[in-house]
Specification:
The chain is an alpha+beta fold. It has two domains: 9-229, PmbA/TldD superfamily (PmbA/TldD fold, 2-Layer Sandwich), CATH 3.30.2290.10; 234-253 and 353-446, no CATH class. The protein is built from nine helices and 18 strands. The protein has helices spanning 9-28, 84-99, 132-147, 217-230, 248-261, 264-268, 329-334, 358-365, 413-418; strands at residues 33-49, 52-70, 73-79, 153-172, 177-195, 198-208, 240-246, 288-291, 314-318, 321-322, 349-352, 355-356, 368-375, 385-396, 399-412, 420-424, 433-434, 438-446. It has a six-stranded antiparallel β-sheet with strand order 3-2-1-4-5-6. Helix 1 (9-28) packs across helix 2 (84-99). The chain is globular, with a radius of gyration of 24 Å.
Length: 448
């Protein structure tokens, strides 16, 4: 099979022309303002299990969504068809929706002066010239490394090798049209380990925009196998109040709850446990959570947000104090504030604070719980109450001793953020939230 030779750089100019055509059609149909998002994606995914090829999937998708404004009335429609007739019908569908909506004084495009004049070079596009046969070979190598890691590895849940390219174009009736190309490549695997006490499963993955930055596939397989065997023969622990470390793989969710609580949508709906918190201390004094959207080559980097507003570096939490909310133009208007360039979410969150090597962090906690997996949805965004199933490892005298599972950890997020003691030096850089290990001083741990 030939290598994947599709290059979306060849599509970028055509997608920009498509945005112009859709905006022109919206104007022709009488819209006072309009905004359009067009995307094209192409990718390959190959999965292997027990050294046998299971699936090969190719995808190539294109679609657009349009929002039209008739004064303060708004309508939105989308389609995967970009023919002239489909453009006309989709704009008409959005217009018909707008006719039946109530006027909203906060509705409308972002202010034109907020659009970027020049987009930063973010180095997000690195196509991987790989075909299905080569991807299968990598997956087999990854799985073989995991299966051969330890005789207690008795089964594979499969290995997947994937590559995706995307082109995103946004334009609005202010005259702004911006685009960016991106890639994301990954290798993931999961294994089952068994001993006399039963079976355990765990996984690992590597992901990057540039295939040259992926971890060695054999190392990925071995790490997944190591994590699965480490969970064997879990013990029960007594119920009590203990220090808890969130590993980097689950700490990102803890930070995500904080960002959600200071996001405009939750704030203007009065559905946040951190209402009216701007300028207030909500976390420990050493904690800073900042956004750096222009980091080259990072998963979350972007030169403009979902409304075409230029992005910029900012702190949401600085030394424990809320310095900025997370706002779009709409939520900003609802709160009588300016957008923070975060329509569609945050870009590259960096968490800093009192940081120690992980071994020192364990020493500092002494005796407590390391959480490596969370289960359930027991987070109340209105009150901050937090209660989730968990598994991980018990730490005694600053050392990992044995795995634990079937436990529950509970507290309130307001107390947890104020009780952050230390951060680890083990930042997980694979996602949009670059979180390290986080040590909470005390939580209720329900075991036996």
């Amino acid at each position: 099979m030939a290598k994947q030779m599709i290059d979306l750089r060849d599509s970028e100019s055509g997608l920009k022309s498509l945005v112009s055509d859709i905006l022109a059609e919206a104007k022709r149909q009488g819209a006072s303002a309009a905004e359009v998002s067009v995307s094209e994606d192409v990718g390959l995914s190959v999965s292997v299990r027990k050294r046998e090829l299971e699936t090969v999937e190719f995808n190539r998708d294109r679609g657009f969504g349009i929002t039209v404004y008739y004064g303060k009335r708004k309508g939105t429609a989308s389609t995967s068809d970009s023919s002239s007739r489909a453009i006309q019908e989709t704009v008409q569908a959005a217009r018909n929706i707008a006719r039946h909506t109530q006027e909203d004084p906060c509705s409308g495009l972002a202010d034109p002066e907020l659009m970027p004049e020049v987009l930063p070079e973010l180095d997000l596009y690195h196509p991987w010239a790989i075909d299905a046969a080569a991807a299968e070979e990598l997956a087999v190598s990854c799985e073989a490394a995991g299966l051969g890691y330890d005789k207690r590895i008795v089964n594979s849940d499969g290995v997947e090798v994937g590559t995706q390219q995307s082109c995103r174009v946004y334009g609005n009736s202010h005259g702004f049209i911006g685009s960016y190309l991106g890639t994301r490549h990954s290798v993931s695997c999961s294994f089952i380990a068994k001993d006399s006490a039963g079976m355990q499963r765990d996984f690992w993955y590597t992901a990057a925009r540039d295939p040259e930055q992926l971890e060695d596939v054999e190392g990925v397989g071995e790490e997944a196998a190591r994590r699965a065997t480490a969970r064997l023969s879990p013990r029960k622990i007594a119920t009590g109040s203990f220090p808890v470390v969130f590993s980097p793989q689950v700490a990102g969710g803890l930070v995500g709850h904080l960002i959600g609580a200071i996001s405009g949508g939750a704030l203007y709906r009065k559905a946040s446990f951190l209402l009216d918190c701007l300028g207030q201390e909500v976390a420990c004094p050493h904690l800073t959570v900042k956004e750096q959207p222009h980091l080259r080559g990072r998963v979350g980097s972007a030169g403009f947000d979902g409304e075409g507003v230029a992005t910029w570096d900012k702190a949401f939490i600085k030394d424990g104090v809320v310095e900025n909310y997370v706002l779009s133009s709409y939520s900003g208007r609802k709160l009588e504030m300016a957008t923070t360039g975060n329509a569609g979410g945050v870009c590259n969150l960096i968490i800093t604070g009192d940081t120690r090597p992980v071994a020192e962090l364990y020493k500092a906690m002494g005796r407590g719980l390391l959480v490596t997996e969370l289960m359930g949805q027991g987070v109340n965004s209105v009150t901050g109450d937090y209660s989730r199933g968990a598994s991980g490892f018990w730490i005694e005298d600053g050392e990992l001793t044995y795995p634990v599972d079937e436990i529950t950890i509970a507290s309130n997020l307001k107390d947890m953020y104020r009780d952050i003691q230390l951060l680890g030096d083990d930042v997980d850089e694979r996602g949009n939230i670059r979180a390290p290990s986080i040590l909470i001083g005390a939580m209720t741990v329900a075991g036996e």
